[in-house]
Amino acid sequence: MPLFDRFRRQLAEHLPSQTDFLLGFSGGLDSTALLGLFAELREKQPHFTLRAIHIHHGLSPHADHWVRHCQSICRRLAIPLIIEKVSVDTRDGIEAGARQARYGAIKRHLRNSEILVTAHHRQDQTETFLLALKRGSGPAGLSAMAVKSAVDNLPIFRPLLPFSRAELEHYVRTVNLPWIEDESNADNQYDRNFLRNQILPPLRRRWPHFDRAVQRSARHCAEQQQLIHDLLTESFRQNYRESDRTFDLSRFPHYSALQQNALLRRWLAELGCNMPSVVQLEQLIRDVIFARADRNPQFHWQNQVIRRYQKRLYVTANFADLSAIRLNIQPNQTITLPDNLGTLRLCETHDGLLAEWAHHRQPLPATDLPIQIRFAYAGKVRTRNGIHQDIKKLWQQANVPVWQRRRIPLIFYGEQFKSAVGFFTDYAEPSIKTGR
Fold first, then answer.
1. I need a labelling partner for 241 at 20 to 30 A (CA). Which of 119, 142, 169, 197 fits?
2. In whole angstroms, what is the distance from residue 70 CA to residue 178 CA?
3. How would you classify the pairing of strands 327-329 and 333-336?
4. How far apart are CA 418 and CA 226, in angstroms?
């Protein structure tokens, strides 16, 4: 069957009702074949809406030339082209940084009606499988790439996975479309290039059907992973709370070690997190889940933190330490709070003051003392009935996790704690003056 007919069958099988596509276009052979196939498809089915996006990473001296080449091809095929220039964060490696920048840029442009289409083919699948094998991945990682999947909630379609690079090259030459070669593809310091250039050629000479065999193995792993997913669904539903995306630990000790690991991975996948290694997962279970009941353990991992509170696991950002922050504020003033906590406004009312933060509104008495916003206090609070209680007890009564307590704006009149906005107020009188 001709390649185009097989391509059209892929689309009909996996996305029969999809009409809007955003095509990832680097200008290389694979993505040029992708554009050509979709352009040919649109000729036969004009209701398809196509756009292409080219990411300018700025990593090659030829990057500007590639942009001009992509513009020329898209003009020829009458496909609108988006050029997006990105900055690559190389702290976790160039490959990881480029991938993160690329998907971030695509997310900004992808319309709700569209699905991203990439040009990954059979040999790419082999490389992805072997890279996962090198990392010691389980069935999920060894499943490699699916024809349809999502990365960071970005829907992706890979219709060329069943096709070989040789088939794509033959197609592109047949329709007379030029392509560019990225010089970095020859740099074997990158793991994928090392596999592509040094390891896989002799394997393919020895075993010509090696790529097809790897593809079958990846499919078997995907089936096993789906079976694990199905078998754990009921247990996962019993432990996962969708409202705050937390994981209940009440039943956790009763599961086997294999079930514990699988449920945690399922939870992290549900949150869109990268998977921890075996060692990291063991550390999480030992140092956080099974830490003493009076502890507030946390596991720092990448740019996130997994925390335990009242027999539940939470995933949060790696928050800044705000304990030394002091922000002066006047009545009828709005100030921006640190670490993405939004704004707080202090309004004068006929009864005194009103603090407004997020969805909280906190009435306060008037004062002639300087007013400050802070985020740390460990003393006592006088309640409405005149009892002095440790603030820790009040946080516990309000069921506020430990890390959130350090992110709630605290209002001070002079040096006296007055209010945790939206939660409780100190009713002590001596330093309060009401004659504004």
1. 142
2. 10
3. unpaired
4. 54
